[in-house]
Protein 1
Amino acid sequence: MPKRVRIHRAAWDIMAEHARAAYPREGCGGMWGRDADNEVLVLHAVALPNRLAEQHPRRYEVDPEHLLRADQAARDRGYRLAGIFHSHPDAPAHFSLTDLRNCCPWYLYVVLSVRGGTVTEARCWKPTPNASSASETVVSVFD
């Protein structure tokens, strides 16, 4: 597990804007990056459609086909799909039991709390290999 995750400001701006635009529903997307000295550098982010936005405003699901395309696009540009970001409208940026049940444990997860249309908090989580729990990882934004 990386000791920390650093998100480039341009990637962060994409993530935050998508979370704000999706509000009051959950927004989601992919994070492209590279591994470096016990940390993950997130260098780009892509918004992805939430298949559950209309039926369940407090849930998200990424179409597997969109996820595969995002993964391939990342690799084509020399990155890897390092993780998934999603928002929690008017709720804390914790990794919920629903998030844990539906996670892919090889990804990092950044959860953005959006309150009243404003991103107020972001936290990063890494599930265990069997997805029985998740540990918080330090996350920061860099220029």
Note: The chain has one domain: 4-142.
Protein 2
Amino acid sequence: MFKLAQKYDSRYTPEAQQKAVKLFQEVLSLDPKGEKGTTDYGEDKVTYTEYAEYSLAEAAMFGRGGLPESRDPGPMKAFIQKYPQSKMLQGAYSSLSSYYQFSGSKEEAQAFFEEYVAKYPDDALVLNSYITRIIRDKEPLDRGLELAKKVNELTKYNPLPRFRRSEAQLYALKGDWEKADEIYGQRFMESRKNNLAFDLIDYARFWVEQNRNLESAEAMTDLALRLDPETSYIRYSAAGILVRLKKEDKALAVFGPDYIKAKLNDSSALATYASFWAGQDKNLESALEAAQKLVDLSPLASRSWMILGSVYRSLKNFPEALKAFEKALQLAKQDWEKQNLQKLIESLQKQIKEPAK
């Protein structure tokens, strides 16, 4: 009977809900003390009786299954009182929160939400649910801002737009539009857009490395470029993904000669571009031009010469690569850098003396 009640409860037609309510009521009449078995609730177990009481309380609160349409939160409150240690307790509070965000008197809602946030003070979703009701009532705004401050602390490493919107609504109700814009204005959404572009690149790179979901990886790469076309990291990361997808023409359109023409006075862009294509063993003539321009701009930087050497090495022009690496060694300041360059030089010298047959 219990399993049949669950089956009907999972269907959201009025007829199915009515059958579920009747069956859950029968479960309670047959096992009022919860002694006849348990069922899964997530990773936990609860008695049939407890589950049935919860389901009936939810039906009463949302007017389902032929129960009065007045939407009565009383049975769910009674459930919380009866089962203070229940594995379903947080679900019960969450259901009441859904009800009180939009229903019930101001005083009743405030009393519930104060209890709710006291029970789960470090859950940003719980705190924001109270803020939602405060916005609806347009008071108490200072309490809402106090809660918003706590939400910010809890989510400071990943501030969700929905939480920022709630805080901005509080300031808007107070008439502080400058603060609302600071919290939820263009600058915030630009940062979210840029963060999403980085996340999309990470996603695409992961699946390309697995050689799976390749169509999705390419689509997400395209989206990242549309969201943030100006960031160098997005450009060269996208190009790397496209090369691995064997879409070299597309990679060149993203991060090729046309791109670098506008960056000829940007040492950082030139270095990234030349290094990238040297590592790919592709687009090497353009990479060489970029590396030579980099040396012109930063002739005393060891890294400039090292990048030039890397491009020459990819072009199999080992004598010129050797000259560039030797110049880089002369300019190097860090011991680790000198050691790496010395190894490169020795390897190239060996290749020059013993060319491949």
Note: The chain has a mean pLDDT of 94.
